[in-house]
Design brief:
The protein has 103 residues and is α/β, with parallel strands linked by helices. The chain is built from five helices and five strands; from the N terminus they run βαβαβαβαβα.
Length: 103
């Protein structure tokens, strides 16, 4: 199982039922936009909120893929099926996938 997936592969995983989790801070969602339907759990809160995701395949996203990669590694080490969006929301948007912005 690959840890890092492209935004298009992540979109396909979500379409198949995986849960998309955005691990950025709230101010980053305002600055960079957000992916519709993503559950927002800041990285610092993921440990205490992981039970909310129990039994689900998880796709994690951050701004560039670094923090979500660490989160995916931690979840995978605990037995989760977890994926990281390579390049984060910046690549997601660059690849032409929709990003919602507060206007």
């Amino acid at each position: 199982m690959e840890r890092d997936v492209s935004p298009r592969a992540a979109e396909a995983l979500v379409a198949e039922g995986a849960r998309l989790v955005d691990v950025r801070e709230a101010d980053e969602l305002d600055a960079d936009g957000r992916i519709e339907g993503a559950l927002h759990i800041p990285l610092g809160d993921l440990g205490e909120r992981a039970a909310e995701l129990q039994g689900q395949r998880v796709v994690l996203v951050c701004r560039s893929g670094a923090r979500s990669g660490m989160a995916a590694d931690a979840l995978r080490a605990s037995g989760w099926e977890a994926y990281n969006v390579d390049g984060g929301i910046l690549r997601w948007e660059r690849d032409g996938l929709p990003v919602a912005r507060n206007t």
